[in-house]
């Protein structure tokens, strides 16, 4: 229930009033208000409101339809505002203050100066002269540059008789190019400049050239600078059009023959010794999985036609009373967090229900990770809560208190996209972020208080030679060593915090077999630990996944940085012969399984329980032959609206810690959930 009622508004009016329509001054400060408390239906009755005080609250944005046509003075000091563009709905605004909103910058000041034509005072300063310059001189200069960019590079690309597709294509290219290449003013205002350039370019295309911009792609692009965040409850999620598509719904059908149990299947032509064949047959007796649900819950704009959104990461929610901090191999809940496109979803694997959905219209999420924090709740008692971190293309980490349906904060971690994130298993507030800026950062995200105030700090920066794709903490010493699979190799760092150096180069790079020799230069797009010592990594070498020993490969006693070490290979797993990258792998240490998807929608499963004992002995020998998969789960013959989805890549596949469910993320916006039977 909203904190704001008719009675509260009448009581908070200055002076107190008996009717909403008579209120001219309203003080709603210090009420712990959140954005959802500002009910447009109630505020629309404040027709004559001229002064509004919303200071000292928890607002992160303004709803777009508050309908306060006569508002002249607005105080938003001491909130958590992240965007100011919604203020354009108050065209008569003359005085605006939003000091102590830590996410707002000088760029936002310039945006409101442009949007609010009557604004005279901003944060107590007279901005009349500067605002006129922004609205006239700045706009004139940028318009000239945008027009010149079109004339020089794009005018001749559009045929005299053009199709709608040609218009859409040229528009997309022009908007991207003009925002990149048109520069004006100081670098501190680059965000504002890009925002204005895009606006001017869209107006130029619409009016000067008569191009229609009301296409779907236009609507998608217009959200880039006006970030919209929302957290949906189960009811709201169910109301989304085409948000979830089950395998059993009439819309999506599966050929019955394809839904029978999958049995072991080796790749054609693979040779196995008698021992290996027996091992595989024994393993296959107790492993079978049935397809449970096929969900389409990350669609852009909730479109049923979206088979382009890529799904990248999923992780099961820890059970709060399981002692997960002390023992990483514990039973988990059946709830999994998945991310891709503009949204993060929480799914009940058994029922296929989308429990919650969190959206950021300008984001493309690449990675999610859970931690459990002991927080102080309102009556001063301490209680454990699961917190979800989500990050992606914008380089920002969103922190979500799932039980409260609340994104309580963000960390602007990198200026380039974040490829992956993970929490320390021993320090619950320590979060690693690996970015396209060729850095891996360690953050202390802090513990939020009962008002969700928190303080994040950067503890360490690890310099990488190329983009880090996957990271893993060494299980036996998670506070000392971190492994990363990168675009150009596999690296290790010493991350111990008692060392003085905050920015550190890598300590070791690992060599792997490459035909007749050893090499360090190869893309490592899959990386995980099978147990305390055995590392599983997938490289750009087609058809092969390596298992190798951390303790026998890494020389902890050696001195100096950037040393080259040879990975002590224990075995090779037979996998697809594709040379396609970024199809990552995962492990289930409790059951000694490795999983990896391929370019045909299949999941390769390897039960390695018969091998790990031998590998763990001091003189454990390398398995001479490649180990074939225990089982390959084939993608069912799904049909949507009578048609098969396009080519299906399995970007990621993850089992819960006790291997009850298997969640498969694809390149076609479908999440598949299998259940072990």
Structural description of this entry:
By secondary structure, the chain is α+β, with helices and mostly antiparallel strands. It folds into two domains: about 5-155 and about 165-210, Ribonuclease Inhibitor (Leucine-rich repeat, LRR (right-handed beta-alpha superhelix), Alpha-Beta Horseshoe), CATH 3.80.10.10; about 290-320 and about 330-675, Methylamine Dehydrogenase, Chain H (7 Propeller), CATH 2.130.10.10. It is built from eleven helices and 40 strands. It has a six-stranded mixed beta sheet with strand order 1-2-3-4-5-6, with no helix packed on it. Strands 22, 23, 24, 26, 27 and 31 form a six-stranded mixed beta sheet that branches. A hairpin with a 3-residue loop joins β19 (about 430-435) and β20. The longest helix has 26 residues, at about 130-155. It starts with 5 loop residues before the first helix and ends with a strand.
